[in-house]
Amino acid sequence: MTVPTTREQCAALDAADPLGPLRKEFTLPADAVYLDGNSLGVLPVRTPEVVRRTVEEEWGQGLITSWNAAGWTELPHTLGDRIAPLVGAAAGEVLVCDSVSVNLFKILTAALRMRPGRRTVLGERDTFPTDLYIAEGVTGLFDGARSVLLGSLDELDEQLAGGDVAVVLLSHVDYRTGVLLDMAEITERVHRAGALMVWDLCHSAGALPIDLTACQVDFAVGCTYKYLNAGPCAPGFLYAAPRHHAAVRQPLTGWFGHAEPFSFKPEYRPTEGIGQFLTSFPPLLALAGLRATLEIWEQVDLAQVRAKSLALTELFMGRCAQLGLEVVTPAEPERRGSQVALRHPDGFPVVQALIERGVIGDFRAPDLMRFGFTPLYTSYTDAWDAAEALREVLASGEWQAERFHRRGAVT
Amino acid sequence: MTVPTTREQCAALDAADPLGPLRKEFTLPADAVYLDGNSLGVLPVRTPEVVRRTVEEEWGQGLITSWNAAGWTELPHTLGDRIAPLVGAAAGEVLVCDSVSVNLFKILTAALRMRPGRRTVLGERDTFPTDLYIAEGVTGLFDGARSVLLGSLDELDEQLAGGDVAVVLLSHVDYRTGVLLDMAEITERVHRAGALMVWDLCHSAGALPIDLTACQVDFAVGCTYKYLNAGPCAPGFLYAAPRHHAAVRQPLTGWFGHAEPFSFKPEYRPTEGIGQFLTSFPPLLALAGLRATLEIWEQVDLAQVRAKSLALTELFMGRCAQLGLEVVTPAEPERRGSQVALRHPDGFPVVQALIERGVIGDFRAPDLMRFGFTPLYTSYTDAWDAAEALREVLASGEWQAERFHRRGAVT
């Protein structure tokens, strides 16, 4: 696809966009370009009604009968099965429950137990911090275990060669730079060294095709509130390769992971399969948001998502480069997720000034401006207009106004 | 209060009930007596609008700005502060997050670390099983640690005398029998033996006054979806006595428990105070249910709740005893929670037959029929009518019909 050089060309691309009709499925802020769907996805139009039904009918009227009548009991599994095709997994391999952090805790603990002769959890220093904090929490529970952080992936082989690495935890797409890692190649390298591979899919699930099965990934975690649009802090999901289901032992052994939860026996006996990762039940009101948005995802071709994502980011990166900005996100499509990071020493006030102009991106310390492109609802003209607004903010110097320097927003 | 002996006397008590006006705050199933609020609390009338506002305005319109503009960032703390008076705690001592099971995992792990010379977690065999399963999960992470289950509290002193008990975990009110334990006396006994005391408040929070501070309790967990009516599987809460805040170290070290979450530093450093128990952020849609129902609780006098609860259960127990049923729940008010358990070898079909008559209780294997009394919306005539329905079900033998013997419901 040729990169458009005028707004008119962008409009023509929008008119021909096979994903274009999906835009009306989402509630977009008026007079704004929302480029923060990699932080919090927007509200699907159909969600309020699904939530209302869950609250007023399933809870309000159905009460405890909804456990069966409304299928509540099966939701961690059925919703997981509906996420599975988005990450290249089969039914029975994905479970919806808890948060990314809690799920990672289960998986890293299980992984250390699966490699009893090894005590190192290997991560990357620039990974989203909660992953590193959880790794620290897990290694603190095992004698001699430690969490080692790579300054760069160039150090991976050297660490693996030491023979002590039990498990490697990496983000598929870096939350700051938008760098996309080669899941197949890295997973294979980690396996060759006898370690297990855990991928954090928070910034790739729903943003690009993922094939956990083909890449022989051991475990993965992901969130549902960014590209998947399930609602603020909606429950996470976890994946465990079926070859590990029999041997795995996770420590958050709660009622709903029991083989016979209604036998009320005092001893724990895990159920078979992915269900053993279930600790307690996710809040039903939060699951309603996921139920709603997955109806949209069932209509989506991820190859189209990826093609549009790359076109949008290429367009935006090109325009930003022309402004003389340092583009941190890789130009090579195979190394790029679905966001663009720009480095600017005054990134914080620049982003605030952009927000005042209706272009909503965010800032990550110390100097990165982040713009997420969510192909289900971001248009080519959005990308064009965002770059134009950035040009005007920088040309006018308006970001230097005092009001743009005040901190406090969680973005 | 004299126990009423006619339905007319019950109606008179309802007319004079200081909590009576609160009944209209709740959506009650039509033509039914709901006595399962100890499993899932009913929908408050005000909740759908609070949820709608959260979905459509805070998420849909506000998007990321709602982290500050709608106070999202502070909700685990502000909602915890609003629960605090219900359990006899002060602001800064209660946090809303995760589930009961996950919170218990944090607390039991922290407790074992606080008593490094001791390796036993002591529980009661009849406690709600998820508590025991979590204790098993935690002790599996510590060399030499074990979970010991008391057949009865009579064995408590003997176990404590062994000197190896690090922490005792008990349910304030037993989920099956409705037995209420003496929090002050037991906590003191446990402390005298050098152990820490953790109370599970799932069946007492919102059912009766609790004074964690006066009882010098170390830690507590509770749920919000039973007597508190926050919605199915709504997030849990945890309490940590302020004297432990400085020394405690819990293992689920996530982003939101960090001292500077937005510094994105790779090393974990817990924030001070109760916030260090926060791992990730609870789903905002689920928190909406809690926000709504706490508006009601702010109008409630727990002494009135307790007085009415005891009157309701006494009335129901008396009527059931007249039917020749074995009442398992203690007659002594100081040993009784807010539910009534009846033993019947055919309890399952009897409960199903009652449900068909519009009296919704539940069944716990092998032979207990459970009826929860929730004074904010259960009336004296409800209690009377429920006992009448039970009399008719037993007198007619209608519970013997084949359709009442089919299993499957989660109640």
From TrEMBL, chains A, B:
Its EC number is 3.7.1.3. GO terms for molecular function: kynureninase activity; pyridoxal phosphate binding. GO terms for biological process: anthranilate metabolic process; L-kynurenine catabolic process; L-tryptophan catabolic process to kynurenine; NAD+ biosynthetic process; quinolinate biosynthetic process. Pyridoxal 5'-phosphate binds at residues 101, 128-131, 200, 203, 225, 255. Keywords: Hydrolase, Pyridine nucleotide biosynthesis, Pyridoxal phosphate. Pfam families: KYNU_C. Pathway: Amino-acid degradation; L-kynurenine degradation; L-alanine and anthranilate from L-kynurenine: step 1/1; Cofactor biosynthesis; NAD(+) biosynthesis; quinolinate from L-kynurenine: step 2/3. The modification N6-(pyridoxal phosphate)lysine is found at residue 226. Homodimer. It comes from the Bacteria. Belongs to the kynureninase family. Its cofactor is pyridoxal 5'-phosphate. The gene is kynU. It comes from Kitasatospora viridis. InterPro entries: Kynureninase, PyrdxlP-dep_Trfase, PyrdxlP-dep_Trfase_major, PyrdxlP-dep_Trfase_small. Gene3D superfamilies: Aspartate Aminotransferase, domain 1, Type I PLP-dependent aspartate aminotransferase-like (Major domain). One of its GO terms (cellular component) is cytoplasm. HAMAP family: Kynureninase. NCBIfam families: kynureninase. This is Kynureninase. Catalyzes the cleavage of L-kynurenine (L-Kyn) and L-3-hydroxykynurenine (L-3OHKyn) into anthranilic acid (AA) and 3-hydroxyanthranilic acid (3-OHAA), respectively. It catalyses: L-kynurenine + H2O = anthranilate + L-alanine + H(+); 3-hydroxy-L-kynurenine + H2O = 3-hydroxyanthranilate + L-alanine + H(+).
